[in-house]
Structure formats: structure tokens, C-alpha cells
Amino acid sequence: MGRREADCAVAATPDDAEDIVAVARGDKPRFEALFARFAPKVKTYLLRLGVAPAAAEELAQETMLNVWRRAHQFDPNLGTGAAWIFTIARNQRIDALRRERHPEALRGQWTIAVTDAPTPEDLFLIREQARRLETALADLSPAQMEVVRRSFLGAGPLSQVARDLDLPLATAKSHLRRAVARLKAALDETS
Predict the structure, then answer these.
(1) I need a surface site. Which of 15, 49, 73, 138 has the fewest CB within 10 A?
(2) How far apart are CA 13 and CA 85, in angstroms?
(3) What's the number of CA atoms in the CB half-sphere (13 Å) around residue 3?
């Protein structure tokens, strides 16, 4: 088995979700096993995203600490344990960038930087983000969906979108604000 296949085999096992559920109940040995399995993978993932080695080590530790603290928020019906952990890592990286006040580095916060071929961790995050976004889009009202579609597909400024849809500008703003909040919450639901 090659290195990438080994990464994939370690990144997600059926026991990951069970381990996280056990951690939510305070099971320290299961957390230690989860930590041993994921901390090195999270650090490698962060290094691939361009995080300095010392910072990647610290962020991996913070990620696993958040796994311990937030295990009760994990829902195995919404995705894999590995995807949940790597999403926490991604969010830790974004928070670190915000703390460092590097706004230029935040531009790509919703995308995954891929240097060569996508890693198993990248693929997990891409699939989970796409699934959550599709679900959130399906939950928007038809009016919200139309305002979002026109606003983001270049139908002009929001005032023009409101005129085209025969809506008051305040209503169009409200639809857009609520829709964006739902979509953002869907993408951040595991943080």
C-alpha cells in the first residue's frame, strides 16, 4: 500500500465516529487513541496549506483540544469523523490568520489549497463542504434563492436585483442577509 493509500486508510475509519461519540461522554482512552491517529495527519494537512511547522504543531494541538471540547457537537449523520476533525483544523487555521491580521491570506478561506494532487484530507473537506452547501441551498426559500442567484451571478447591484424581482430593497437585503447567514452556518457547522 502506497503512502497516499495509507493516509486515506488512517484518515477515516468506521471507528472515528464511534470514538468521537465516546469522547463526548468523557472517554479519555478513546480520545488518546483519536489524538494519536489524527494529530500527525492534521499537522501534515496544515503544513500542506502553508502553515509554518511550529504553528502547524500548535494548531494541530488546538484542533485536537477542540475535538475534546466539542465532541458533543459531532453528528455522525452529517459526515465522517475525519471530515469533522479536518474542518475544525481548517477553521483553526482561519482563526489564526485572523488573529495575525493578514486579511490577504483570508481571501481563499473557503477553498482548499492544493499543490499537487488532492490529498485524502482535501477530498474529505471538499466533499463535506459541497454536501453541506447543497443541503443549505435546498433549504432556502424560493425568494432567497432567487436573490442569491442573481446577486452572485452578476445580475447587477442588489438595488437592480430588487427592481428586477419587484421587491423593496430592504426585503432583497433581508433575503440576501438571511440566505448568506444560512450558507455560512452550513459551512461552519462543524467548527
Answers:
(1) 138
(2) 13
(3) 3
What is the Cα–Cα distance from 17 to 139, expressed in whole angstroms?
26
Task: Quote the radius of gyration of the chain (alpha carbons, Å).
Answer: 19
pTM (predicted TM-score): 0.51
**3-state SS record for the chain:** CCHHHHHHHHHCCHHHHHHHHHHHCCCHHHHHHHHHHHHHHHHHHHHHCCCCHHHHHHHHHHHHHHHHHHHHHCCCCCCCHHHHHHHHHHHHHHHHHHHHCCHHHHCCCCCCCCCCCCCHHHHHHHHHHHHHHHHHHHHCCHHHHHHHHHHHCCCCCHHHHHHHCCCCHHHHHHHHHHHHHHHHHHHHCCC
Reported as a single tens digit per residue, the pLDDT across 43-95 is 998 888 888 888 889 999 999 998 999 988 888 888 888 889 998 998 888 88
Residue pair 165/146 in contact by the 8 Å Cβ criterion: yes
